[in-house]
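Researcher: Next entry in the queue.
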Amino acid sequence: MDSSDAIYQGLKKAGIDFVVSLPCVNLGKIIEMVDCDEEITHVPVTREEEGFGICAGAYLGGKKTAILMQNSGLGNSVNVLASLYKLYKLPILMVMSHRGTEGEFMSAQIPMGEATPGVLDTLEIAYFLPKTPEDAYKALSEAWLLSEMGGSPTAMLLEIGFW
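Model: Structure for this entry, 163 residues:
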């Protein structure tokens, strides 16, 4: 099972049926698979905050939600995560391509890459760092369950070495 297929199959196993996505080269194959899946409603967006708002409404309408994004968008999302998701105890699974980690070729990605775990810690958002596709596949169901039971977002950080 390759890394993209593991994430897609893990989302399916977790029962995720509503996915918002932002463009990302690492997540591109997963986005294509989600887009072709008739059991998953897929909404492409241009801003993370927009995606989180749409997912909040979908969750309140009975959907199990996830957002596919780069960690660089986490900075754009701090307010919506704190003042909507944490305040109203809404679950969401954030699947993030974690740019700026070991092997990053673009220096502009490194500061946010280094800051990402600390931002999640500050917001008290649990996160998973799978190293293999098999680990990611297994962890996705656990991450969704943790999010749903805890009424809080959870994140899956997929570092450069994962791909």
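Model: The first strand starts at residue 18 and ends at 21.
Researcher: Noted, moving on.
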